[in-house]
Amino acid sequence: MRTLTRDARVSEHLRSVEGGERRRKTWQLTDDGAAAAKDRAETLSKTKVLLRGEDGQLLEVPAHEARGRLDADIGLLRILMHAQHEGVLTYGDIRFGLIRRKGDAADGELPPGRLTMMAGAHATYHTSPPNTRKVHGRETERTALDAWYDERRPAMLVHGIAGIGKSTLVANWLAALQSNDEHLSVCWYPCQPWDTVTGLAVSLLHRFGIDDRHDPYDLMSTLPLHPGAQLDIDLWRRRLLAYLTDARTIRDRFDPGRRGPPPYWLVVIDDAHHLTEQGGAFYGALLSLAEKTPVRLLFISRRTMDFYDQRDVHTRDVMRELPLEGLPLDVVERWLADLTGDIASPEDVLARTGGHPLALELLELYGDVVHGDWLRFLDQEILSALPEGERELLATLASADAPVPWSRLAEAVGWEGLPPQHLMDHGLLLDLKDGMWLHEALRERLLREVGEAQDARRAALEG
């Protein structure tokens, strides 16, 4: 605000705020600021954006046309107020509101109320899975999801590299499941990089029917009420456990006239890897809840998670894991059979893309086996986020024609210690019987780096 004030684009004032006794500092746009905002808006309105329709088709339109094609039903002020409530905006005492003169409101119109707990929580999750593109193959994975759901096991983790089709598979499977099970309540929570444990906890309470009018176990008092405060995970878990195991209370909350079993929930946490360090402890609390309540958890992540141990997978059958890899050759063949034009052989496509669904979708759209957008996706979502040492390790391994023993690979790149767990958790580095290998999609991208550096990598492996 200081920069904008110095540039004479906003003016600073002191005004009374509803519900407060002290006058507060406010800012308003000046004529220069309004003109600059208008120019900026006109420039941004010409930016091309991509929209995906209900039929899954992509449409490129100028930004100023996007508003008329979307049905979001939410304004900027509501977004800012919700962001503040979720703890995203926590610097000082920030309030948002419209500046209006006394007497502007229509006669008899009630003044706006104060922002209350749970306000806007309904906009942070979905009660049905998002619309998806056509899913090719994945019959084995669907069978695993069906078996997990039918056996009523507490949780499952679906993991794989970026763009491999994790959310698409789960959404497609869940849409079919929800159409056949009227008692299933879904909470699809898409995690964002800025998400917090508190935000997820608030959304879950809202989905479970907790609000300021219905809170028999005083769950809302467990939420942090001050910016920067931490959620008491154990207290939140204990009270929520008591609530979710009180069948009569839950049944009366959602359907007082029905005298059957209470509703049960399937909580899908998409991009679960985005949560902060406290997320592991919170996920562990959710897992303990799922073991004793009518709640099932389905995590979607780019990497494996460490809030449970392998005994929960292999011995106790509390958590199941479903790693997603590239599509096999027979699925690639069926996909390419539906395309027209001069298309490369399925074997060549599989070798160069690793059966990655996104690469095949771009092939379907543009006809290129390795499209520029595919390479850009690999760079932005995967390679650019890696430390230089790990990227060089993968690039050196890509220059080999077969799996390489770890001792030889480590010597070639000067690596000390065990293989990088970070790469193995994300499925980028594979520990096979014959040695270390990498995801085929990355190999095709890294082999495009030619010259002396590539020759030096091959020499290091051979030497």
Report on this model:
It is a single chain. A five-stranded parallel β-sheet has the order 6-7-8-5-9, with helices on both faces. Strands 1-2 form a two-stranded antiparallel sheet. It has a two-stranded antiparallel sheet with strand order 3-4. Helix 8 (233-244) packs parallel to helix 10, helix 12 crosses helix 13 (346-353) and helix 16 crosses helix 17 (406-413). It has helices at 2-6, 31-45, 63-69, 76-85, 139-150, 166-180, 197-207, 233-244, 247-254, 279-292, 310-314, 329-337, 346-353, 357-366, 372-381, 388-398, 406-413, 421-425, 440-446, 452-462, and strands at 10-16, 23-29, 48-52, 58-62, 155-159, 184-190, 264-270, 295-301, 319-323, 429-432, 435-438. Strand 10 (429-432) and strand 11 form a beta hairpin. It has 20 helices and eleven strands. The protein is of the alpha/beta class and 463 residues long. The radius of gyration is 26 Å and the shape is globular. It has three domains: 2-71, no CATH class; 121-323, Rossmann fold (3-Layer(aba) Sandwich); 330-462, no CATH class. 42% of the residues lie in helices and 14% in strands.
